[in-house]
Amino acid sequence: MFTLPEVREQKDLKNEILKLKLEKNAVILAHYYQEPEIQDLADFIGDSLELSRKAKDTDADMIVFCGVHFMAECAKILNPSKKVLIPDPEAGCSLADSCPAPLFKEFIENYPGHTVISYINCSAAVKALSDIIVTSSNAEKIVNQLPADEKIIFAPDRNLGRFIMKKTGRDMVLWEGTCIVHETFSLRKILDLKASHPGAKLIAHPECEAPVLSAADYIGSTSALLKYVQSDLNDSYIVATEPGIMYQMEKAVPHKTLIAAPPEKDNCNCNNCPYMKLNSLEKLYDCLLNEEYEIHMDEKLIAGALTPLERMLEMSR
Ligand code: 13P
Ligand code: SF4
What we know:
Elements: H1 4-10, H2 13-23, E1 26-31, H3 36-41, E2 44-46, H4 48-57, E3 62-66, H5 69-78, E4 83-85, H6 94-97, H7 101-109, E5 115-119, H8 124-128, E6 132-134, H9 139-144, E7 152-155, H10 158-168, E8 173-174, H11 187-196, E9 201-204, H12 210-215, E10 218-219, H13 222-231, E11 236-240, H14 245-252, E12 257-260, H15 281-290, H16 299-315
Parallel strand pairs: 1-2, 1-3, 3-4, 5-6, 5-7, 7-8, 9-10, 9-11, 11-12
The structure holds 1,3-dihydroxyacetonephosphate and iron/sulfur cluster.
Iron/sulfur cluster binds near residues 95, 180, 242 and 275.
């Protein structure tokens, strides 16, 4: 086995990662927002819902989660006997951070009799306080299955919450969290782009702010956006989500024009998720070699967070 500097010299990082993966019977799961070289090495690439399903069903001994912490935590909750690793333990999520469990507990107590629906982008402690978990792929479907008079709290993403309220016609009490990446897109610049690319459709993730969503031709999760550019007949799109997804889009529809929606601030990189982009090939190699950083959770927390996650999987079949 090589140390990281030796491997760098051999310029063979990718092969060494694949070798370690085989030796350790590990599976590499990657979110669409990962760097292209990580997506290329992954056994499976997907959105939050698809990755949760894969994590639950894998028979590998080790799950290496190239995504952010709440995603790796979900893998551990759904498959607790496996060793779950994340290449960078600092890969968090602004949405999850916007909803600390003690404050959320107090918030819920102010609304007795409400069903608590939490977006999967939250900590395990917040999941354990929730009745049902949803992702951007299944939130509408799940909310529609609840009785019309059911009172609902939706957390932590207010933009997804408002979007689901509009789609379902339901009133929900919202936690005011946002994603620092999806709130960055500039409607003004998007409209300028539309003017210079007449005919380009705006497609957006539901975490975007309401004015961007109002202007969108299609709204969906990362996987839904990828499927849309493949099935839709248009030939150009402005894509309002983290640009990591563009890698798979460009592969799937190389003949189409795909433009990343611009952030409000000039010359900033703020439409790239700073947490997702903490993972790198070097860290992935170290992660497999040293079997770190492992997700450790106590059994009580796993049990508390598992119930609403399983409910999600049942209701989104
Ligand atoms: P998806 O469920 O679309 O993968 O979204 C996850 C996410 O973190 C978006 O910012
Ligand atoms: Fe969290 Fe936003 Fe990054 Fe998604 S893009 S992981 S919601 S900070």
